[in-house]
Amino acid sequence: MNAQPQATPRQITPPHVVIIGGGFAGLWATRALARAPVRVSLVDRGNHHLFQPLLYQVATAGLSAPDIAAPLRHILRGQRNVTVLMGDVVAIDTAGKTLRFADGELPGHSKLEYDMLDCGTLSYDVLLIASGSTHAYFGHDDWAFDAPGLKTLDDALEIRRRILTAFERAEAEADPVARAAWLTFAVVGGGPTGVELAGTLAEIARHTLRGEFRRIDPGSARILLLEAGTRVLSTFPESLSHKARASLQRLGVEVRTGVAVTSIDAHGVVLGDNESIAARTVLWAAGVAASPLARSLDVPLDRVGRVIVAPDLSVPGHPGIFVAGDLATVRGANGKPVPGVAPAAKQMGSHVARAIRARLAGKPAPAFRYRDHGNLATIGRRAGVVDLGRLRLSGVLAWWFWLAAHIFFLIGFRNRLVVLIDWAWAYWSYRRNARIIVGNARDSGTPR
Question: Does residue 212 share a domain with residue 315?
Answer without folding.
Answer: no
